[in-house]
Design a protein that fits this description.
2 copies of one chain form a homodimer. In chain A, helix 9 links the parallel strand 7 and strand 8. The first copy, chain A, has 214 residues and is α/β, with parallel strands linked by helices. The first copy, chain A, has 2 domains: 75 residues, Orthogonal Bundle (Arc Repressor Mutant, subunit A); 112 residues, NAD(P)-binding Rossmann-like Domain (Rossmann fold). Helices cover 47% and strands 17% of the residues of chain A. The interface between A and B is large, with 70 and 69 residues.
Chain lengths: 214, 214
Amino acid sequence: MRQDKILNIPAIRRMPTYLHKLLKMQAEGRVRVSSTELAEYMHIELIVVRKDISLTGISGQRRVGYDIKELIRYIKNYLGWEDVLQAALIGAGSLGTALLGYDDFEHYGFFINHVFDCDPQKTGKEIYGRRVYHIDEMAERFAGNMPEIAVICVSNTAAQSVADKLVALGVKYIWNFANVSLKVPAGVVVQREVIAGGLAMLTVKRKQDKMSED
Amino acid sequence: MRQDKILNIPAIRRMPTYLHKLLKMQAEGRVRVSSTELAEYMHIELIVVRKDISLTGISGQRRVGYDIKELIRYIKNYLGWEDVLQAALIGAGSLGTALLGYDDFEHYGFFINHVFDCDPQKTGKEIYGRRVYHIDEMAERFAGNMPEIAVICVSNTAAQSVADKLVALGVKYIWNFANVSLKVPAGVVVQREVIAGGLAMLTVKRKQDKMSED
């Protein structure tokens, strides 16, 4: 268990939001950005922004701000997003469909190029230009085109058996949206996505508001 | 800006995962749980579990573990989930539909009892038993039945105008799934949900693995 990772969780989670903003600025022709402007955008303190950015290893220039293009490169490098990451999505229900339609992924170099489901209503169809294959076709589809990451969007009850299949095929990185703690062998990394985590953040703030009102 | 909140972000985000597990244990007839068992489930260190749980104010009993029912009560109290929270969902696309189908919300006392969209293909229909109303009907639907929280699942381009409407109607807590930084007046709290934050966590771990392999 590596404590250094645990300490930086909020900063790591914020990185895509910086990146989103920086890519937008770059598209608008902007060249430099100050940490003050980023702090306002992120709704966090200046010192937190500076700490976040220093994690990427870029050297800050107090007066002139950061070079946007360079900062994008440092953030992508920090996250391991400098090369294209290919992914398989298992489960083409509403959540899986939402992920397929998430525009920012392609700007981040994250491509879901395999989609699987076991529902005959879905297999053979296309979602956002990606054809849905049956789960039994995974081995065949992965041959010579192994995804770096698998995204599990199946039901809680099906998630473990899907994870077992993925691990057997050699997948090492799993982004799990099912609300279960997956059992995987050592060397396989699972990132469990708990959607209610954000709700907890919001309601804790709400509770603090209510208490300060009393 | 309150630093105490910022420091506890990972712990707050983990609370629903503890709660999910504890509610499941309770349903199975379990009475007590040790922090060791929770640490194994959460894939985190024992000391982190003990710190997380101590945030709720419950007094730990080293030898006998925690009373599950009591721990559930403390976590719900810590999160402000002891009473039912009513919510409005704006945007009944694939992501909104996924949230409506998220079973755990009702165990957490979080009820989405208003659903709005502006697409005539969706208005008038039912999704998981909730009727979709047109966005223009918000004021009318909220009369006497004001939601505590609004969940924004519309496109990035529509999100700010939806937020403006919600704020004008008196909504103070917004859970924003659109990838934009919403401008809201002081006193309104926005929790921005960045789905790519979890991907960042996974790829940073992947990068560290690759570096230690070299």
